[in-house]
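Session log. Operator J.P. requested a structure for one protein chain; no other inputs attached. Running the standard single-chain path with token output.
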Amino acid sequence: MAGGKETPRQKMIGMMYLVLTALLALNVSTTVLDKFAFINQSLEQANVETSTRNAQTLTGMTKSVEEKGNRKEDLDVIAATEQLRAKTQEVLASLEESKETFVQITGGYSEGAKETKDRMHIEGKTNYDKVGHYMMPKEDGGDGNGAAMQTLLNGYAEFVRDLLKKNGADEKELLKYHKLALDANEDEYWKKDPNQRGKKWSQLNFHDSPTHAALATVSEFQANVLGYETAAMDYLKKRVGLKDLTFDDIKPVVMPESRYVAAGTPYVAEMFIAASASGLNDQIKMTYNGSSIPVVDGVGKVQFTATPGNYDKEGNSRKTFEAAITVPLGGGLDTTFIDEIEYFVSRPVIQIQSQSVQALYRNCGNALDVQVPALGNAYNPSFTAKGGDAIKGPDRGQVTVVPNARKVTLTVSSNGNVIGSRDFGVRAIPAPEIKVGTDQGEVNLKDGIPAKTPRLFLIAEPDPSFKEFLPNDAKFIVAEAELTLVSGGLGRGNMRSGSRVNLAQITRNARKGDIISIEIKKVQRQNFRKQVEDFPRFQRFISIPLK
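Structure written below.
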């Protein structure tokens, strides 16, 4: 039945009705038509049983309310249920009158059945016309009585919706009670059928219908009405005693001050009883600060990322959140328990490991290892740098800081929450030392080189401590130098070169006692990104005697 739970018997009757309707369309014998009488009888008996059960439900609800002290809110539910029963009986009685009319206009009861009004035996069981004419719209040549029955059925559905809405039903619940008598264009099934599309409800249900089939049709609508009543009473029944909350799932709970205890220190915890209503576990809703949390077996799990706050001198920040547990009591009424929970956020300590963390080198890739031990496995860092760039490394906590100002501020965040910042001074890159070499090795500038030395190598040697700290940034090269052969105090020739010098250009006429004067004009550095840049304001003078 629409809107309620069907018994196996009701499902069987409905299936038989559909099969026989199909057979009827084939103009089968009166033997098959007799089956409609059986279906109608079964439907009427099932309807009586359903109506009896609903009456018993109302009696049980009334008794339950009396036992609870006849509280006003419960009595209001009983009054609504009584209104529902009265309306249902009114509709059923009207439909019953229509069925009796069908019998009378098709010839009445057979001899021997007039006293008992046994509808198994009527004169008009093979009459296909009179009921249809009686129900058909006037514009189609009928008497138009179907419109009144359609209004009655749909009005009942609207009555049930209004009654439940006044008693707290939500839209999901109200959607169950749609119209009971739909025209073809309103019905999702019939409006797709080209043979039925556009027909009125009375045409769909009563056109060319033999009397017993028409009786069974109305009995089915009575069953639908009772189905709506059953479903509505189930809803109203849940509203009786809504404020009674019974806790039946009781368990001990131990809440320690901390799960981690150092050896030799006391373990401190509070122990108490926690109780929940097992029948409501799947319906309980829990939130913190208005955000829903997962609930399993009546137990919710609060999990969120603690954010920094105004820390006191001990490094702690007091915070609170609102915990709310909503218990549904049925019928759209809820009871919510709210409490403010206090907790403290400790300032995380940022630990930075590096060969030198007091000052970083400008325009260099200063590799740092930044850890926050207090966060444990929850540490998921990201970095930003003011006065430079911060490049996140492959491992957790690794970052390369490239300063481009006199001071750089590194800010550390975890999972989007700022943990803290650390300021660093910025050092200038120490200038390299220029050394001169030949094929035989490094030149002793005091002793000099032979006059016929074919080539020199100008070597830019990085500062040892800088090279040890940042080897990938300590790659220097002499990019430009000017060499002059000085003889008797006068320049006899000069040349420009890079780090590799072919001396043959200026030493063809060199003699013992001459001097090679070297001016280093430009030195370049390759940084950790393999980018080459000029070393700023670099100039050196070197004199090498010839022997």
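Operator note: Residues 249-346 form one domain.
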